[in-house]
Amino acid sequence: MSKYLPWIKRNLGLPLLMASITAITLGIYQAREATATQYAVLEQMYLDGTPEFRAALAELVDEPLSRWTYFGLSRAYWEETRALALPHDVPAPEIDSATARRALWDTVRQRTSRGRVP
């Protein structure tokens, strides 16, 4: 084993280090809050989605959503509605993420307070 250790350090050290740095960087990037456009798409998906999807999104009210959560919800939307693509006719909002998040949660609250299934 001791004769292979220098070879491992020399030939595998840098690739493993680069892969680790890339994974950590992507994890930090995806943990950031969703963008205003993503919140707008979620709002449209909420209006078009199944009751199960709406209930899943309603459970997250008042929480800032990470990009991980956004992609998980997108995947759930695709599976439950059998959609081929996300709603693409959502205009890019000229607002920040906090305002878009507030608009999404206002829509969710409005729909659930009317006695509809979330």
Give the structure's gist in a few sentences.
Helices cover 67% and strands 0% of the residues.
Could you describe the 3D structure shown?
The chain is mainly α. The protein has two domains: 1-31; 36-115, no CATH class. It has helices at residues 5-30, 36-48, 51-58, 67-81, 97-113. Helix 2 (36-48) packs parallel to helix 4, helix 2 (36-48) packs parallel to helix 5 (97-113) and helix 3 packs antiparallel against helix 4. It is elongated, with a radius of gyration of 20 Å. The mean pLDDT is 85.
Question: What's the end-to-end separation, in Å?
Answer: 61 Å
Tell me the series of helices and strands, N- to C-terminal: HHHHH
User: Which strand-content bin applies to the residues?
Assistant: under 5%
Radius of gyration: 20 Å
